Amino acid sequence: TLAASILALILSLLVYALAGNRIEGMALAKLSSLILIAIVLPFVIREPWRYLAGILPSFWLGEARMGGGLLPPLAFIGVSGLWLAFLVPHFSRRIDRA
Question: pTM for the full model?
Answer without folding.
Answer: 0.83
